[in-house]
Amino acid sequence: EAGVVQSPRYKIIEKKQPVAFWCNPISGHNTLYWYLQNLGQGPELLIRYENEEAVDDSQLPKDRFSAERLKGVDSTLKIQPAELGDSAVYLCASRSTDTQYFGPGTRLTVL
Amino acid sequence: AQSVTQLGSHVSVSEGALVLLRCNYSSSVPPYLFWYVQYPNQGLQLLLKYTSAATLVKGINGFEAEFKKSETSFHLTKPSAHMSDAAEYFCAVSSSTSYGKLTFGQGTILTVHP
């Protein structure tokens, strides 16, 4: 069984540019999460999807961040415009019963 | 609200020595507890989990953890460290009422010396 797939693995952009991250969850997993992991810290939830519905986006900075999960499978997280402080690892996870499975993450560097 | 505290941001052991990584949690409802491992430039891999069954949980790579409700702890142990155990370890808590939302600790970096 394939795991959670994320792309790109690494992204370097200039500040004020837009950037997008893509996630393909494990087949059959209806719940999808995006997490932000700053250097030296544990991941923090940004948004949770149940199928195509964003059911918890209270931690998503909506002025510059947006996300979508069309058709309830793949998901895209976007930042526009990016700021220096957005440099971090963005992790995607999907859930089966009580366990979350994580992708490898996208490491974003904003210059 | 739920929270996790991992005592010690860095732990260093010799190869073959006991590994003990500490985790204390706070939860107003019965918790589900997890340990994840993260190798450099990789995502998080589940080591083991406690979801209200046996309090002593065995995971992959020889790790185990014991849920102690009276101490609100879920410490991770391994009898004999291997060089390949060097990584960052995260303790996390969720519950049946949190819709799977995980709250993570700050992480503990394990270094294994030859």
Which descriptors apply to this entry?
heterodimer; A: 111 residues; mainly beta; seven-stranded mixed beta sheet; four-stranded antiparallel beta sheet; 0% helix; B: 114 residues; 56% strand
Give the count of helical stretches of chain A: 0
The tally of strands of chain A reads 11
Number of strands of chain B: 11
The quaternary structure here is heterodimer
- Helical percent range of chain B? under 10%
Task: Give the overall shape of chain B.
Answer: globular
What does this protein structure show overall?
- The complex is a heterodimer of chains A (111) and B (114).
- By secondary structure, chain A is an all-beta fold.
- Chain A is built from no helices and 11 strands.
- Chain A has strands at residues 5-7, 10-13, 19-24, 31-37, 44-50, 53-56, 65-68, 75-79, 88-96, 99-102, 106-110.
- The radius of gyration of chain A is 13 Å and the shape is globular.
- Chain A starts with a strand and ends with a strand.
- The model of chain A has no long low-confidence stretch (mean pLDDT 93).
- With 114 residues, chain B is mainly beta.
- Chain B is built from no helices and 11 strands.
- Chain B has strands at residues 3-7, 10-14, 19-26, 31-38, 44-50, 56-58, 64-68, 73-78, 87-95, 103-104, 108-113.
- In chain B, the strands form 2 sheets. In chain B, strands 2, 4, 5, 9, 10 and 11 form a 6-stranded mixed β-sheet that branches. In chain B, strands 1-3-8-7-6 form a 5-stranded antiparallel β-sheet, with no helix packed on it.
- The N and C termini of chain B lie far apart (41 Å).
- The mean pLDDT of chain B is 93.
- Chain A binds chain B through residues 4, 6, 31, 33, 40-45, 48, 55-56, 91, 93, 95, 98-105, 107, and chain B through 4, 9, 32, 34, 36, 41-46, 49, 51, 90, 92, 94, 99-102, 104-107.
